[in-house]
Amino acid sequence: MMRCFLVFLSIKRLKMFTNKYTPVGLWYQQFIRLFWFGGMVVILLTDKYELHKKLNSLGTGWLDLVMRFYTHLGDGVFAIALGLLFMIKNIRLGLLIIISYVSSAIIAQLLKQVVFTNFHRPYYYFKEDETFRFIENFTYHSHHSFPSGHATSCFAVFTLLAYFFEEKKQYQLLFAFLAISVAFSRVYLSQHFLQDIIAGSMIGYFSAHLCWILLQDKLSKLDRPFKSS
């Protein structure tokens, strides 16, 4: 069921995304599609438990330290704070970021709490495995694994930013790197399996894409800095 869900999310030529709209953020989109393609191939060709244990064995002390803080770029608090910060310079961009995050978070949480309730996190399966590598003084969660909320959040935010700064190739590449690496931090920290972050990234991406298509013109009057009265 989960693999079918992933395939459904990865369909590229939905009518709403073709012909009528000019693609934006092309460099960003190409890297994200490559990430999805590679992730789907790995998911289809490997056992998720063996793959996760292999990835777990590659961890290092310094990466443990970096990732446990870096992963917070996928927090909802970060998304809201970033939206409010950008609102100072551009109200429209700030609102789009917040709307994109909130809409994607609702979808992800509904799937977690209602649909995929029996999907557990890596810690649930490996907590008794003495060969599994655990990070000291780190809190692991056991349930509500699919999809990844952090992956959803960071893709909702960075997709919006890549679209807004579509004329700057270097920004698009930066946002693609940030989105993918923050999502992968969830796998590194054994808070999610690979398929969790792939699904989350798709939810975040398409939520941002829809927000951009439906709202960017309607909010054009707010394409200005915030000025307090």
Describe the structure.
It is a single chain. With 229 residues, this protein is mainly α. The longest helix is centred in the middle third of the chain and has 25 residues. It has a single domain, classed as Vanadium-containing Chloroperoxidase, domain 1. The radius of gyration is 18 Å and the shape is elongated.
Count helical runs. 10
Beta-strand percentage?
under 5%
Count all strands and give the number: 0
Shape-level CATH architecture? Up-down Bundle
- CATH classification class: Mainly Alpha
Shape: elongated
Topology-level CATH name: Vanadium-containing Chloroperoxidase, domain 1
Helix content: 55-70%
Write down the secondary-structure element order.
HHHHHHHHHH
The low-confidence runs, each spanning 5 or more residues with pLDDT under 50, are 11-22
User: Averaged pLDDT, please?
Assistant: 88
Number of domains as seen in the coordinates? 1
